[in-house]
Amino acid sequence: MSFSLDHIVIAVSNLNEAVADYRALGFTVYPGGVHHGGVSHNALIIFGDGSYFELIAYRQNAPDNRWWSVLNKAGEGFVDFAILPQNTERDLAAARARGLQVEGPIAGGRLRPDGVRLDWQIVRPPTTDLPFWCGDVTPRNLRVPEGEMRRHDNGVQGVARVLVTVKDAAVSAARYIALLGHG
Questions:
Q1: Which of 12, 21, 43, 127 is spaced 20 to 30 A from 57 at the CA atom?
Q2: How far is CA 17 from CA 20, 21, 23, 145, in A?
Q3: What does the alpha-carbon distance between residue 38 and residue 71 come to, in Å, rounded to a whole number?
Q4: Model pTM?
């Protein structure tokens, strides 16, 4: 089973200010929209390789949301990353058969500013050493557009790697083996 990096989540206090800051750094920032339920909204920095940064801000308090809690305790910054399954249901069944404990699939989505509704399925591990999954229900190119918005004046084209710091390397390695199916 193979997954690719889908996106890296960056929690911000004020979406408009963050968009202006990232644009000043030479990034092309695409308005994402409002997530289902209206609690949060986002903007995207999409790279040529199809991965992206999600700038997420909260429109109301969300104490049950882990990202909101991290933002309010630690401040702005990286809070998570997502991988893209090839087939959410099949990949989920395979990972669970290898002993991976995860929650989902959970319906997620957002409404783009142009009125297009996007839907996906989230699979979330109970620990923060593993990424969550974001499996598209609507076509991915609606969620992650192609074209000129993937070009950035600063020349950034993608994400080369994600470094995950863990408490116990052996325990986390076992979780990644259960996730990916190989050691």
A1: 127
A2: 5, 6, 10, 23
A3: 18
A4: 0.94
